[in-house]
Design a protein that fits this description.
The complex is a heterodimer of chains A (83) and B (335).
Chain A: H1 3-27, H2 39-82
Helix pairs in contact in A: 1-2
Chain B: H1 4-34, E1 38-40, E2 49-51, H2 56-72, H3 77-99, H4 106-113, H5 116-120, E3 129-130, E4 134-135, H6 142-159, H7 166-185, H8 188-208, H9 217-234, H10 238-244, H11 246-259, E5 273-275, E6 281-283, H12 293-298, H13 305-331
Antiparallel strand pairs in B: 1-2, 3-4, 5-6
The chains are: A mainly alpha (83), B mainly alpha (335).
Chain lengths: 83, 335
């Protein structure tokens, strides 16, 4: 049972990250406005929004993967040390 | 409030799905064994042969349950048709994959097409509720998201089918959670479908639990995963389903990110876990082996196969609790 606490904590981290990143994508990335008027400038605004949204999601996935790797290799290290 | 007619409809669907799956699983298992369609139980020292493709029983249970329900509640026709067609297409893809394995790239692509009945029958609402944001309008993007959703749910449930009882055990908890959420939100017809998936999974779990007497094969796991995806879309509980499926998504994400590409289990040389001489399992310490959920659970030390599956079910219970919280945040009701 004790081995599950860390994994349950990662689950909560993933859940919080999901809520936070959808909030940030919607309230920060998709509200970026430069006041441009031409079609090309508006397309550029859309591209910037998509890139910022992508960065937010990437940061979340990267943090998730790093956290998991940290837990996994530490646990394996501890197991090897005690063997 | 729930009225007795609605509850009877839900109980009717669930009972037929349960009884059909319970009765047909051993019959299909006998048939598969006679035809030599068996697979090695790799997590046992004896490596016994177990009948494969018995997930056909789940398909049969869901089909008969759906047909009976649509006769009893004719207004559910559109939703039931979209659900059943999606599940049968995913099941058919799984069936062919079991007989002649598909490549790791083709399978997700094909399972995305299982979503087409939902799109063509327009059995969806492009206004999903997202926690902290409320209802958002996604009229153009939503049909594409449906294709992705069915591919993701079917393949992530399939990737969780690695140990005795792991797929039906975790799916039972997820579908029970979603059934309750759908009942609370008043989506009675979709709650009946979800109760049917719960009932069929529980009946199948009886035979697939440790030590397994049957394997579901991709026939069952792809169909059940597609069923969960379809329920999320038809019942407008997309975000709640994503949260409830966190263990399956974690398992798929870790596997894909550690291998660096889509892969099939049979392609992987370095296994994520290894069987010890006392019958317990241990996490592999090979650097290039996929980091799966089972490997993460075993990182702290060896455990029995039954113990690993129990851990997966506990993690699913945790994600189910988070799914309830997500629903409450989404609709603004305090727990």
């Amino acid at each position: 049972m004790s081995r599950l606490w860390s994994l349950a904590a990662i689950e909560v981290f993933v859940w919080l990250g999901l809520l936070l990143s959808t909030f940030l994508v919607s309230k920060v990335a998709f509200t970026i406005e430069f006041g441009f008027t031409t079609i090309v400038e508006r397309i550029a605004t859309q591209i910037v929004r998509a890139v910022v949204a992508g960065v937010i999601v990437f940061v979340w996935l990267f943090a998730w993967k790093k956290l998991t790797n940290l837990y996994f290799w530490r646990a394996i290290g501890r197991r090897k040390a005690s063997a | 409030m729930l009225d007795s007619a609605q509850l009877t409809g839900i109980a009717f669907f669930a009972s037929i799905a349960f009884v059909t799956t319970l009765i047909s699983t051993p019959i299909i298992a006998k048939m598969m064994r006679r035809r030599g369609i068996t697979g090695k139980d790799v997590h046992k020292i004896s490596k016994i042969e177990i009948p494969e493709m018995c997930g056909l029983a789940i398909l049969l249970g869901l089909t008969l349950g759906s047909l009976a329900y649509v006769v009893a509640v004719p207004s559910s026709g559109n939703a039931i048709t979209a659900f059943l067609a999606t599940v049968l297409i995913a099941g058919a893809i799984g069936f062919f994959d079991d007989l002649r394995p598909l490549s790791a790239r083709v399978k997700p692509l094909l399972t995305a097409f299982a979503a087409l009945p939902i799109i063509f029958l327009h059995a969806y609402s492009p206004y999903p509720t997202i926690p902290l944001l409320g209802t958002v309008r996604l009229t153009i993007v939503y049909p594409f998201l449906i294709l992705i959703a069915i591919a993701v749910t079917s393949n992530s449930v399939n990737m969780m089918d690695v140990m005795n009882g792991s797929m039906p055990g975790t799916v039972s908890i997820t579908s029970a959670t979603i059934t309750v959420v759908l009942l609370i939100s008043g989506e009675m017809q979709i709650a009946a479908i979800s109760a049917g998936v719960l009932a069929a999974s529980l009946a199948f779990f009886y035979y697939n639990r440790f030590p397994a007497k049957v394997f579901s094969g991709d026939t069952g796991s792809l169909a059940v995963g597609a069923a969960l995806g379809a329920i999320a879309i038809l019942g407008k509980v997309e975000t709640v389903m994503v949260v409830a499926l966190i263990p399956q998504i974690m398992n798929a994400f870790y596997g894909l990110s550690s291998v660096g590409r889509l892969y099939e289990r049979r392609e992987i040389q370095q296994r994520p876990t290894r069987l010890l001489s006392d019958g317990t399992l241990e996490a592999s310490d090979e650097k290039h082996a996929p980091v799966t959920l089972a490997r993460l659970i075993l990182a702290a030390g060896p455990a029995t196969e039954g113990g690993v599956v129990r851990s997966m079910m506990i993690l699913t219970a945790v994600s189910s609790t988070l799914a309830f919280l997500t629903y409450w945040i989404g609709v603004g009701i305090k727990p």
